Amino acid sequence: MGSKTLIKWSKQITSSQVQQLIRTERDIQKAILIFDSATAEYTNGFRHDHNTFGLIISRLVSANQFRSAEEILCRMNEEKCKFTEDIFLSICRAYGRVHKPLDAIRIFHKMKEFQCEPTQKSYVSILAILVGENQLKMAQSFYKYMREMGILHSITSLNVLIKGLCKNSGTMDAALRVFREMPDRGYIPDSYTYGTLINGLCKFGKISEAKELFKEMGTKGCSPTVVTYTSLIHGLCQSCNLSEAVELLEEMISKSIEPNVITYSTLMDGLCKVGHSSQAMELFGKMVGKRLSPNMITYSTLINGLCKEGKLQEALEILDRMRLQGLKPDAGLYGKIINGLCDSSKFQEAANFLDEMVLGGISPNRVTWSLHVKINNMVVRGLCTENNPTRAFQMYLSMRSRGISTEAETFSSLVSCFCNKGGLHKAAHIVKEMVLEGCVPDEATWNAIVGGYWGRRKAREAAELLQVELIGEFLEPRI
């Protein structure tokens, strides 16, 4: 960091003044200049303390400037400044946020190097980072290390361990074992413990066990949260127990536990998957009535369900509503709409949506690519069946420019369509591109193009003359 002076400080510059200025400055570079200009006041007796150091470190890691933050740590050490556990933890958590758990552990070990003894809070924070990053082997090793270091169990550390064990089906039983042993160790499971286990069991399809635990939760005086209810509703939907899932939503409301957007969207998804989109729409109305803003998942679920049931008009109305909310459809959502339009033989509208998607710069990703190859080809073939060669050719060129492969059937449809409309040059061009792409034209494609040329007067006359010449040559006696 440089020592560029930014402000004129009063003679009695204080740590709280510096903190206030750094805190209110949104621009990280300007915040650094404030910190540096305060450093320039060292000649007047001012010294940065753990508060100003800690604050600038927090600001730096929020902006992912980790190297600069670690340089400040070293400077604190050089200046014999008092360290606090929270300064180290702010760096550890920031490394966790950017998926660098090993760096979080490295900073954790620096605490002892810098004579700052980590408490249970730090150990649990590192354990939570490892679990959050799905580094389960590392988390279990760290948990053993905690015990070796004499760190006593706490409800928080046990909850973090259970959360980690609930991430894999193979360690689910171990999570339940830890849970059952908790009372023997003097710890009473709380709502978070039950919620984590119920979520894990639902994720791995163990719905009956999840339901038992949910009942037990009530008898132990633990109130289920909206997250617990949502996990169980999701599990019930996955196992097609939709009536139970609906009952659970009603139970929530009766107990004054307000369902959130995820709860409603989860149940809507379950209903749409079994063809109950009208019921899902009713739920959508209730949700909006409670002033809850639908998200992309909500809209995508409804549009997909309505399209599958051929309710295109309703699907397009939901799409308009989504746009009014300022949300833009992604490639997956466009795919669902276009597929629905193709299924209803509305190829012109489908082509318009494809154009809109391309103009919006929305490209399919690895997951949605195969769907978009399918629908692009379907749209071109559909336009050919509607005898709209100009629009079909336009869509074909658009496909080629975007690297979307053309299927053999689509090539054949284009050739046949242009031959019928007298566009033989375009048909020949398409056959050439078809061969270059490694597609072998079938008999119908060859017949269409040869028949097209044969139908032209000049081509027929030339062929007939050639036929006469050839016949004459074979019949004339050779000398």
Automatic annotation (TrEMBL):
Coiled-coil portions: none
PROSITE patterns: PPR
Family matches, as InterPro entries: PPR_rpt (IPR002885), TPR-like_helical_dom_sf (IPR011990)
Source organism, top-level taxon: Eukaryota
Molecular function GO terms recorded: mRNA binding
Keywords for the protein's UniProt record, in alphabetical order: Repeat
PPR repeat start and end residues: 84-118, 154-189, 190-224, 225-259, 260-294, 295-329, 330-364, 407-441
Pfam families: PPR, PPR_1, PPR_2, PPR_3
UniProt-listed NCBIfam families: PPR
Family designation: Belongs to the PPR family. P subfamily.
Protein name: Pentatricopeptide repeat-containing protein
Organism: Tetracentron sinense (Spur-leaf)
